[in-house]
């Protein structure tokens, strides 16, 4: 599904170059569930931004669904982002003035999906994340866990094949984090590919693969390696 070959990322600011990602190779197959772990500043967000076509590699080859990313225009990348990728962030990023229903419907408003079909998709997703009884609430009337479930429903409404999640449970207590992980796992079991940044080794163990990033160096780790540390 995704293929990274000798990909690097440097940032240059006032002649100071930061090597955010050292050359790495990685293949992500359809149906993978990958946890990205590593300390703050190690390059996790940079990796996710490249994977999600938000930033371009400094060198190397990245193919996204068989397309060489270098050859894509900004417009083509943005189209791929809305058709194939669902983004979930630590801070939820919901629109405060809109209710739950409208927040989830937003991505469809920009597509040509007819109103009736939009309603069916939104309601089916809200049911999947257990929020059908909250459709008229504004985000500030919801708990953090509920807000993240709205954000997940919104990320899924365009039926993406790939979910990119940056610390999706970072602001949540352990019960809410476990609920969000259960939703992600069940999506993965239904075939959605997931790349998830997490600080929690305990949550990382629930993925199928773990990639550790340290100082911009990516290393695949055995999931059992993490399981062992947690006993
Ligand atoms: P993480 O997500 O693991 O905390 P990041 O990917 O955000 O790490 O950052 C990796 C490194 O790249 C850090 O040294 C960070 O300061 C640097 N960096 C990230 N984004 C930028 C940017 N837009 N401009 C300059 N440096 C950046
Ligand atoms: P987190 O550690 O929660 O992933 P970060 O604080 O590393 O978040 O990064 C948040 C955003 O800021 C990212 O999009 C990253 O690319 C950008 N960023 C990080 N470091 C820098 C930097 N030194 N200069 C500019 N942008 C940066």
UniProtKB/TrEMBL annotation:
Keywords: ATP-binding, Nucleotide-binding, Transport. GO terms for molecular function: ATP binding. InterPro entries: AAA+_ATPase, ABC_transporter-like_ATP-bd, ABC_transporter-like_CS, MacB-like_ATP-bd, P-loop_NTPase. The keyword Transport applies. Residues 2-231 form the ABC transporter domain. Transmembrane segments: none annotated. PROSITE patterns: ABC_TRANSPORTER_1 (PS00211), ABC_TRANSPORTER_2 (PS50893). Belongs to the ABC transporter superfamily. This is ABC transporter ATP-binding protein.
């Amino acid at each position: 599904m995704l293929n990274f070959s000798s990909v690097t990322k440097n940032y240059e600011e006032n002649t100071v170059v930061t090597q955010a990602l050292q050359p790495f190779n990685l293949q992500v197959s359809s149906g993978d569930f990958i946890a990205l772990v590593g300390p703050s500043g190690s390059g996790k967000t940079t990796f996710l931004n490249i994977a999600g076509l938000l930033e371009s590699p400094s060198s190397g080859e990245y193919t996204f669904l068989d397309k060489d990313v270098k050859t894509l225009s900004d417009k083509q990348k943005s189209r791929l982002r809305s058709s194939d990728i669902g983004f979930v962030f630590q801070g939820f990023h919901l629109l405060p003035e809109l209710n739950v229903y409208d927040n989830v419907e937003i991505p469809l408003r920009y597509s040509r999906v007819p109103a009736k079909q939009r309603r069916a998709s939104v309601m089916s997703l809200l049911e999947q994340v257990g929020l059908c009884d909250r459709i008229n609430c504004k985000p500030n009337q919801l708990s953090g866990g509920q807000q993240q479930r709205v954000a997940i429903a919104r990320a899924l409404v365009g039926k993406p094949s790939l979910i990119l999640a940056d610390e999706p449970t970072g602001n949540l207590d352990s019960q809410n984090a476990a609920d969000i992980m259960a939703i992600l796992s069940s999506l993965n079991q239904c075939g959605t590919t997931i790349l998830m940044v997490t600080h929690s080794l305990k949550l990382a163990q629930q993925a199928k693969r773990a990639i550790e990033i340290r100082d911009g160096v990516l290393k695949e780790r055995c999931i059992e390696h993490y399981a062992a540390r947690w006993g």
